[in-house]
Write a structure and sequence with these properties.
Layout (H helix, E strand, L loop, with lengths): L11 H16 L2 H8 L6 H22 L38 E6 L7 E2 H4 L5 E8 L5 E10 H7 L8 E6 L4 E5 H4 L5 E6 L2 E2 L9 E3 L12 E7 L19
């Protein structure tokens, strides 16, 4: 998500709730939504409950249809968007940076070896390149060139419980999101170290971002600080404000 005017930030969550209500009302009559959700839509809390029920239903359906064997489309190098756009819930001049030489990824939860990992350690693992499309919930998309370590390989390396339900990501720009384990093990889900032929730049999430082409943009966290494997539902920055949790693209 990106911000266009500073004063919009404070009201963004409410604007998004209004947009979602209007979108659902446009797609369904209130009577139809009431029937599907089992809620009487006679006031604002009732509408919010109905939207929450429908969102959970959407998440379950997306999870049911998802397969780690179905790949997102990959593109030719000539199709890369130039320049690939900066995207966050703040402006580009507010990017927070860390020294890559001193950065380490913290690990927690259902993991046997929780010792932090440095960038140099990640460079020793198998790398995978993908040219895939980033799809933003705001309605735009862009094709980027990403390289990094498949998350499945890393989770196996650190002895993560691959039967756990969730993988939770926290970032040093205060962002967070989480995914299901099936998505974490998808072959195109990578811990990104490079963009194009160079190390990942700050605008794209240095020193590490998670690239998940099977998910919408808000499920692709940048500026990664920690990974936790858990059976407790973690939520996320936008998900806690009403966005669908599964977020499939």
């Amino acid at each position: 998500m990106s911000r266009t005017q500073p004063d919009r930030t404070a009201i963004a969550p409410e604007l998004k709730r209004i947009e979602r209500r209007l979108m659902l009302k446009g797609a369904l009559s209130l009577g139809g939504l009431s029937m599907l959700s089992g809620c009487a839509l006679d006031d604002e809390p009732s509408i919010e409950r109905a939207l929450s029920i429908m969102s959970r239903f959407t998440d379950k359906m997306q999870a049911f249809l998802f397969s780690r064997h179905k790949l997102a489309r990959e593109f030719d190098i000539s199709q890369i968007t130039q320049p690939f756009p900066f995207n966050a819930y703040y402006d580009e001049d507010e990017i927070r940076t860390v020294d890559p030489a001193h950065w380490c990824l913290e690990l927690g939860g259902l993991i046997m070896d929780r010792r932090p990992w440095s960038l140099s350690q990640f460079r020793t693992l198998p790398q995978k390149r993908q040219i895939t499309r980033h799809i933003c919930v705001e309605g735009w998309s862009a094709i980027g060139d990403w390289s990094g370590v498949p998350l499945s390989i890393f989770l196996q390396r650190i002895g993560a419980d691959l039967k756990a339900k969730y993988v939770n990501f926290r970032c040093f720009d205060d962002y967070s999101t989480s995914i299901d384990m099936e998505t974490a093990l998808h072959p195109q889900t990578i811990l990104t170290l490079d963009y194009g032929n160079a190390a990942l730049p700050p605008a794209y999430g240095a020193p590490m971002k998670v690239r998940i082409p099977t998910k919408l943009g808000y499920k692709n966290p940048k500026y990664l600080a920690s990974i936790e494997v858990t059976n407790h539902f973690p939520g996320g920055y936008w998900e806690d404000q009403g966005y669908d949790w599964f977020g499939g693209s």
